[in-house]
Amino acid sequence: LGPIIWPLFFVTSIMDFIDHIRLTVESGKGGPGSVSFRREKYIPRGGPDGGDGGKGGDIIIETAKNLNSLLHYQNKRQFKAKNGQGGGPQNMTGASGEDTVLKVPPGTLVKDEDDNVIADLKGHPERIVLLRGGKGGKGNWYFRNSVNQAPQYAQPGLEGEAKEIQLELKLLADVGLLGFPNVGKSTLISRVSAAKPKIANYPFTTLVPNLGVVKLWGNDSFVIADIPGLIPDAHKGVGLGIQFLRHIERTSLFVHMVDVSPETARSPMDDYKKINNELAMYDQEALNRLGSKLTERKQIIVLNKCDTQAPEKLEEIVFEFETQGVKVLQMSAATGQGTQDLINIIGEELSNEQ
Ligand SMILES: Nc1nc2c(ncn2[C@@H]2O[C@H](COP(=O)(O)OP(=O)(O)OP(=O)(O)O)[C@@H](O)[C@H]2O)c(=O)[nH]1
Ligand SMILES: [Mg+2]
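Above: inputs. Below: predicted complex with magnesium ion.
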């Protein structure tokens, strides 16, 4: 690759690793003050007793440890805190409007419309009051004085504030996708997440890693990294090399995809071993740096493109893996067969780790 292309790669690869969302938020309006006069027996003209309005709700942003993406904001982008209630007679203050608390994963950067950083929420728990609710208006009781003992007015509540904000999260992959070029890694990630990587029927389509956020149950999700395919001698720089392994070296789980289509004319078992061999070549360095080896990470082995293979031949391939003690999952990223099973298995593996 030419020297001009490299910086461009660098920028795209960073951008791909960021989850980004724009939200419109608004704090609550303060409740109006009340105009009211005491009505008591034997006191024909009681004094003013209108209470103050309640404060509007705040917009609060708070980190939640169980979140690891901003996926939960995909369908709702506008948030408004509740307004304060009006004041009442007998000097009653109105109830405050309820705050709206936006939960984000630790590591979320909060920015304004113009990219100025408002907060960098790293910790847990950590929270900021982004917008304060409007103050409640004063009731007429507040305005009584020796000159005007029966004020007929009260303040309205103050408006809340509205703002457009951006949330940004640097994503860290939970799961790494391994495999030869063209086995369907990008097809899988495009099917199970919102990521839209380039897919084509030739090797080295993916030149930089892509991350996808995959929804599990409830608010749970995981981040899967699609990296450029590996080939034998990648550790010597053949193909795109193994430098992209660093993007998945901190993931505890690998999904190892093997192409079973007749088109490759390679042996799936052979492919599987060759990729593991490349991992082993990376390991001495990884051990020095990370204190652990990539070959010792848990792998889920997936046979992909099962839709293209004759059932008998497929059985043979599965048998070959099983006799070597390797459990495999059959899948077709193209038709979607087996992809949900894979997601469920990943979800279980990740929850076992916690
Ligand atoms: N029939 C069939 N074709 C598939 C399946 N999965 C992927 N393909 C096709 O295989 C080709 C390669 O898919 P990609 O997703 O680009 O493969 P990749 O592993 O990301 O490849 P690199 O980025 O080059 O490493 C494309 O033409 C896909 O349409 C599958 O399950 N069945
Ligand atoms: Mg690809």
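The longest helix spans residues 268-290.
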